[in-house]
Amino acid sequence: MIPLQTSNTLPDWAALAPAIILAVTALALFLIDSIDPNDESPSMLAGVATLGSVLAMVVTGWYLVAGTGMPRTGGAIELFSGQLVVDGMSLFFTFIFTSVTALVCVASYDYLSGRPNQAEYYALVLLAATGMSVMASANSLATAFVALELSSLPSYGLVAYLKNDRGSVEAGLKYFLIGAVSSAVLAYGISLVYASAGVLELAAIAEALGAGIDNTGVLGVGILMVAGGFAFKTASVPFHFWAPEAYEGAPAPVSGFLSSASKAAGFVLAFRVFVTAFPLDVVAGTIDWALAFTVLALVTMTLGNFAAATQDKVKRMLAYSSIGHAGYALIGIAVLTGTADQSYALGASMLHLFVYGFMNTGAFLFVALVEYWGVGRTFEDYNGLAKQAPVACFAMTIFLFSLAGLPIGGGALSKWALLSATASAATLSAYLLAAALIVNSALSLFYYSRVVKAMWIEDPAGDFEVSSYPTGLYAAVVGAAIVTFLLLPAFGVVSGTAFDAAAALF
Amino acid sequence: MVPAEYYLLLSAAMFCIGLFGILTRRNALLFLMSVELMLNAASINLVAFSLQWGNLTGQVFTLFLMALAAAEVAIGIGIILVLYRNFADIDVTKPTTMRW
């Protein structure tokens, strides 16, 4: 293994290879489509899309193992005069994005069969993934904004992909409207930060702010608005209300893609911007964003879980639970005060997002499988499903219990890491967060179990027959389940990388 | 030189007008225009403070912002078009097939 650094064989720009591979694959899909636009067989498109995302995932994994951009091989690689940076954290998150993209592409093969405009669908998925991996590397507010838009704009189109389905169009509209507003809020926040600091590179902002500023009010509002823009991407309060609609109306693989990868992309940006550009000791006189994030985390996880408990549609329940999980992941940034073990807290959040990427995508892909069969959307419609499709239902059980935090998948350990992070902070707000995490996890077990109970215990209501077992969807669901389960024994492998990557940021 | 506070006031006013439009208008196209107003408020800040700080970062970012706003409108118009085909209206309060 050759670590990728200036002194070594590969040039610097090769550190961006995952993003480049994703973008090239997206363009290749358009090319294939333009050569034979009437090709009815989707295997070529799905194959190329899957190949591209798997290749990007393998390259990212290789970089992670080789230690590209990590302290042990010479530190972060800065590109384009510091506009982009490749380090452990960006690679860690790119691995999440590319693996989720691969799962979604495999599952979409069956889900999309017989639908038009498949090339555009796969290309948009890959372009959004490109935007996310650039978001993970963004080292300036300018690149952060451009990358965020690159991941958002294709997502709007993907949500509204089912053009003749009123639910999908409504979801796309709501997602777009709230996305447009929140990106305007983010842009305005960035302009206020620029007004205070005079620069947009993250490290330079911290330097400029440390040297003293005239107008703390402008900066404070700017930082809050930047936080608001990220809250949209992570589907946390106060910009969460698009999430239930968008996830419910969108094609289920897209819901999985958005709620796992897109959410993680928002978090990686929030981590990097707030830790690098607005360190708490520098902006302490202006705004205490740790407190703001504590409140947001508490409200987000409570609202998400309580709303999820009252749903009668499985997909909408998963959408609200995804808001709840955004609240859990916010803990890592909320406890970043002086007393906490900061790199541990950030690492715990990264781990939760990593495990969440697999278990949540898997759960949504199971919903995609159920939609493929034409089963209804409510809990009752899932009754007795396990008699017909035991393997898929077993996988779904793993996802749900892992989401709830039972030790059947990696979710238990990542929640444990978050709890330890709050314990290390040992402040009142951290204990509040810990209590909320425990109470909400207990509550979430209730509504996740409803699905499990429906699948395994209840008798089927009608005489429903599962007619076919689609290979792609099954492969994706079972693959995600195996990874979710394996993350339980193999948690140490991932956690070492995550904590190292987080430590490099401070 | 015009003091920086005036630019901040102008942009804040524009941002608030845009926000007001979003909260009160039901027509999707007016909604898009209001968002455009909010983005332009950010551009005013960036250009004004680019002069104030004596670097070009803000002006260059404004160019990106304008391009992104155009891209956003392109997607938005597409979505509004399928909205009209499905609901025969572009009132953003009409689509309510999903409620909790």
From TrEMBL, chain A:
It is found in: Membrane. One of its GO terms (molecular function) is NADH dehydrogenase (ubiquinone) activity. This is NADH-quinone oxidoreductase subunit N. Pfam families: Proton_antipo_M. The chain crosses the membrane at residues 13-32, 44-65, 85-109, 121-138, 175-197, 217-243, 289-310, 317-338, 350-370, 391-408, 428-448, 469-491. HAMAP family: NDH1_NuoN_1. GO terms for cellular component: membrane. The lineage of its organism: Archaea, Methanobacteriati, Methanobacteriota, Stenosarchaea group, Halobacteria. It comes from Halorientalis pallida.
TrEMBL record, chain B:
Belongs to the complex I subunit 4L family. This is NADH-quinone oxidoreductase subunit NuoK. It is a multi-pass membrane protein. GO terms for cellular component: NADH dehydrogenase complex. Gene3D superfamilies: 1.10.287.3510. It is found in: Membrane. Its EC number is 1.6.5.11. It comes from Halorientalis pallida. Its main location: membrane. The gene is nuoK. Coiled coil: none annotated. It is an enzyme of class 1 (oxidoreductase). GO terms for molecular function: oxidoreductase activity, acting on NAD(P)H. GO terms for biological process: ATP synthesis coupled electron transport. Keywords: Membrane, Oxidoreductase, Transmembrane, Transmembrane helix, Transport. InterPro entries: NADH_UbQ_OxRdtase_chain4L/K, NUOK/Mnh_C1-like. The chain crosses the membrane at residues 6-23, 30-51, 63-84.
